[in-house]
Amino acid sequence: MTDNRTRHNLRLAIQKEGRLTQQTMSLLHTAGLEFESYRAQLFVTCRNFDLDVLYVRDDDIPEYVAEGVVDLGIVGQNLVTEYGFDVRDLHPLGFGYCKLVVAVVDESDVLASHQLEGGKVATSYPNSARRYFDSLGINVTLIPVRGSVELAPAIGVATAVVELTATGGTLRINDLRVVDTILSSEATLVANPLSYGEPIRRREIDRLLVRLRAVLNAKTHKYVMMNVPREALERVQQVAPGMKSPTVVPLADPDWVAVHAAVREELFWDVIEALRSAGATEILVSPIEKLIM
Question: What is the pLDDT of residue 40?
Answer without folding.
Answer: 72
